[in-house]
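Obj: model holo form, ligand = S-adenosylmethionine.
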Amino acid sequence: MNKFLFVLGSNWRLSIAELDNVLKNSQFLGKIVDYSANIAIVEFENLHEDRYYVNKLMDLQFLLGGCQKIAKIYDFINILTIQEAFPLEMENYKIIEKVRKKILNLLDKSLDEIFPNIKKESLFFAVSIYPNLFDEEYYSKILVRHFLPFLNKEIMNILKQKGAKKALYYQYPQKNIDEGNLNPIFPHHLIKYGLFNADRAEIIFGFTEEGVYIARTFTSDDPSFKKKIDEERPFKEFKSSISPKLAIMMLNFLNLFEERETKKIIDPFMGNGIIAMFATLQDFDIYGSDIDEKKVQNTIRNLDWLLNDIEEAITPFFINKFKKIDVKNLLDHYDPQLFDGICTEPPLGIFYKKEKPYYVEVNEVIETELEPIYEAIFSQANKLLKPNGRICMIAPIFSIIDGKDVQINVEKLANRNNFKLIPIIKEKRIINKSNQKLQFRKPHVRTLIDAKKGQIIKRKIYIFEKKN
Ligand SMILES: C[S@@+](CC[C@H](N)C(=O)[O-])C[C@H]1O[C@@H](n2cnc3c(N)ncnc32)[C@H](O)[C@@H]1O
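Output (holo structure tokens):
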């Protein structure tokens, strides 16, 4: 089976949008053929034919901000078979036993591929189950309490029957199993337990509405590196900063995948420079500016810290690319059509903490502070960008006291400055699902939101393209 399973980031819609865009526009051509709130199933046009496809998967893993792991799929079991073998209410034991045998036959075959050598080997495996949705009853009641112990025991038995000297499995805390509340293996555990070695494996059972995919993990995100940048960089302000993952995803929405070192991009509201840092790591020719001199110095110090960490030297030429500039004066500093893309988080207004604001308050901030800045970035970008150059940007949505949401009409400002909105997911790229929680409600998904539950200011992610 030439399909791959991608474990998605916590904002699964945004992760799917990013993955779909990469599969459509980069060298990694392919299509998402199935998905849930935790995984996406991908069929590549030709990546799987490459002898060194695992190296390619590693490159792809590094490129993506919203992907935790990539695994190769070896088999698939239809959801009806699984539900017959592991029903919510145990009734007909004869049928259950018969169908479970069928599942064991499939496992038997997959294990020969997951472990290339079994005879006389000491093997170790960790089973990770990714349900359709973590909050569904079937996960806590059946998959964690019955399916997982079944898999652990039976996989161990099959490996021993096939001649393994030893076969051990990763034991999750019993308390979590009893409570039906379990997280699959974290990416950093994959490295800790050596699960990329030939004799050790993470075996993923990834569910969608259609069934369960059986896969072995080949690559994982390096969350400790991102965490280090997020938490240890010299200058940071969590309330005004986006996450590393979001910065990487936004950079990918610029659609600049080839020869990144030649692609000039700019963040004109760079703050402490999270976008500049990840653009540097992703090989872009990144420029940055901010109205506040202190922020410019903070970004330079952060970049110095980052380059030092990856053992590269910071040059005066590099430092010169980060300047104090008011966004409305960008053209005084840069030639027209210099840039291939703009990736940025403009000011979001006041940071309301606990209390929701009144409509009049928000409206005033939007009209007097935010709209002039957003208008300025579009009018400057129209001249600074090459034809068809893209802007990936954030704009705020405010939850106000009467329960409604208020936002800037960013699209109007963009349109009157020669930009068109690019839907973040294009029509018919993703098949729809019957569970409402998993649906993309419209055929075109125009924008997506990045926010935690109850957040008063939410971030909305937009992609715009210069019309000519
Ligand atoms: C939301 S913050 C960006 C945060 C950034 N993503 C980070 O990682 O720190 C917006 C930035 O826009 C800057 N800013 C505000 N008005 C500006 C203007 N007219 N021109 C340029 N920068 C401006 C602020 O100084 C602030 O650093």
